[in-house]
Amino acid sequence: PMATPVLGGKELAYLTEAIKTGWISSAGRYVGEFEERFSAYCGGRYGITTTSGTTALHLALATLGVGPGDEVILPALTIIATANAVTYTGATPILVDSEPSTWGMDPQQVAQKITPHTKAIMPVHLYGHPVDIDPILELARRAGVAVVEDAAEAHGAEYKGRRIGGHGDLVCFSFYANKIITTGEGGMIVTRDPSMAERARLLRDQAHERKRRFLHRHLGYNYRMTNLQAAVGLAQLERIDEFVEVRRRHAHQYNSFFSAVPGITLPPEASWAKNVHWMYSVLIDSRDFGASRDEIIEQLKDHGIESRSFFTPFHEQPLYQSRYTGEQYPVAEELSRQGLNLPSGNELTEAQVVRVAETLKSTPRSATLSYSSGRASLAPTRGRTG
Prior knowledge:
- The protein has helices at about 10-20, 30-40, 55-65, 80-90, 105-115, 135-145, 195-205, 225-235, 240-260, 285-290, 295-300, 330-340, 350-360, and strands at about 45-50, 70-75, 90-95, 120, 145-150, 160, 160-165, 170-175, 185-190, 265, 275, 280-285, 310, 340.
- It is an alpha/beta fold.
- The longest helix has 19 residues, at about 240-260.
- It starts with 10 loop residues before the first helix and ends in a 25-residue tail after the last helix.
């Protein structure tokens, strides 16, 4: 499998305690403790747990009052949940291309897309590598807009020596089962702003008035994490440094196999970044490798090894592409065509990494492959390890 959670810590003990006390819904000590400890780990001050990473993004935008007529700038290359969260509010997703070297959103293009309708900028820390966030924060400051980070894949990742979670106005994490730490399903907003934290908590719980519970002045949501999920999350958090190092160790091992293989570009790690390799992600240039990304996926599948392509760019999604007719994001498009994610989970063994790598390298290769011209040039990162 791509990523199976490791549940060998105190998950069962904490769950048992929650069940014995009867606190199994959204009240109970584990929710508050998980929020406090995870936000502190990330460098934030407040944590607001949610039912998923997607609802964390939606709640963050709702907290800012994003709605119809507003625009939110985000990268074209991201999981569809990022853009869906914008759509839920009635706002318009405005797309920018990726940087070839880091695969994150291009700050220069962000600057070109800011308008009087821009309400927020939403960078995505793709596959565990941080976005170059300082230029985006500066653009947002000058424009008077908020930064909502999608950090669903970046638990423990670092930007200039600081963990992701302490930079933007609202930073959203996912705890789905394949993430670096998990609660099964679940998410969290991390922020340093007390007023934003208070509003997010209000909207998360149906916007009940504090002094009169069944009085409502705002449109709220039921996005509450359960005490049972938080109990699992707290136990997972106690091992997060171990899990991050496991993923980085796997990446080093994969890199040692692929660094000299023509046609394989290794995952990026900028000088200012710590990549946590939520997925071990490479690019396959079929011209040099001799087989396409999709042929490799089939080869791995024939050997019982699961792998995944990169996300489909938002403007190419059938659900949305009519909105972006004529728009092109060549770097995102090429990353999507070439990108391959290999098994990367916390449970992966060194022997399994060797098997995956050797199977990939043994993919039958053709001497002649058709290849469309005119695509973006992606900067190689061979030899740069994570």
